[in-house]
Amino acid sequence: MTIRVMLVDDQALLRTGFRMVLTAQQDMEVAAEASDGAEALAVLRETPVDVVLMDVRMPNVDGVEATRRICEGGEGGPGKPKVLILTTFDLDEYAFSALKAGASGFMLKDVPPGDLLAAIRAVHSGDAVVAPSTTRRLIDRFSSVLPATASEPVAKELRRLTEREREVLTLIAQGLSNGEIAAQLVLSEATVKTHVGRILAKLELRDRVQAVVLAYETGLVRAGG
């Protein structure tokens, strides 16, 4: 299966570089390009795309708003595409908002080609691509926009979970991988994977990224704590 990718960035040189990398792959093609979010949304109405590589800071409609519209299903035509955010991280203050808007993950713009290709394939298959250590750094970076305390001992969303599932969710939000969670809770990695799947299903979340965001928003985990 060929993965149809759209490049959205206001810097033509960056799009050219990404295009060269992607078109060299047998399982990928650059189906479309756009220089800002508004153009991307217009193109997506007419062009089927599997994965959108989305810059954040762009004129007119920025990457956060474009991501929100795509992930809500209001734009993008049939087969709503997955969105992978491209960010400079240290300079970009919108990455957290983009993840909340529904992006399946984010990568640095200077990502090695192999990592970028792996991320596109992972997103296309339904996985998130924010590594646990990167998740931890991202949450620390944007802790000022997260609540300092929970409004109640157990937020109503989390009441759907068992005590063990809340424990696993807490460790996910702290940046632990499935293997690290298994070691800490003395469980098999397969069991942890099952818990993660149930957590996502019960909370109606798409992936680990949304699980991390929810854990902080509900106060289950606090930034810096």
TrEMBL record:
Residue list for modification 4-aspartylphosphate: D55
Domain Response regulatory: 4-124
PROSITE patterns: HTH_LUXR_1 (PS00622), HTH_LUXR_2 (PS50043), RESPONSE_REGULATORY (PS50110)
Keywords annotated in UniProt: DNA-binding, Phosphoprotein, Transcription, Transcription regulation
InterPro entries: CheY-like_superfamily, NreC/VraR/RcsB-like_REC, Sig_transdc_resp-reg_receiver, Tscrpt_reg_LuxR_C, WalR-like
Residue intervals of the HTH luxR-type domain: 154-219
PANTHER family recorded: TRANSCRIPTIONAL REGULATORY PROTEIN NARL-RELATED (PTHR43214:SF24), TWO-COMPONENT RESPONSE REGULATOR (PTHR43214)
Protein name listed in UniProt: Response regulator transcription factor
